[in-house]
Known about the structure:
By secondary structure, the chain is mainly alpha-helical. The chain is built from seven helices and two strands, in the order ααααββααα. It has two domains: 2-95, Alpha-Beta Complex (Actin, Chain A, domain 4), CATH 3.90.640; 99-126, no CATH class. Keywords: Actin-binding, ATP-binding, Nucleotide-binding.
Amino acid sequence: GRDITYFIQQLLREREVGIPPEQSLETAKAVKERFSYVCPDLVKEFNKYDIDGTKWIKQYTGINAISKREFTIDVGYERFLGPEIFFHPEFANPDFTQPISEVVDEVIQNCPIDVRRPLYKAPEITNQSNI
């Protein structure tokens, strides 16, 4: 979850100028928890946003911790690009190129042969965070 938060933080910093710097991580975490989702087709998802962005872009409103003023940002591609690093880790870090499906397969292949079949039938990936 933390890697997704950092990736969303990076995306927001590149695009949004209204986020107080001292709150960029907190804002990214809130965006991840409230708006993120996994999409089945990355290209179709980009097209969906490009065709009718107003339908898909959400707004996040926060309070600046120092000035106590409200700030609002648009949340667009970050909604689906954050979770996409599970499947394309190189988006967030070029040093990591193995998607989660390959990691799971490798782990199962390293198990004793008699337990592999049940593991392949019902893989379950859990974490302490929602995404």
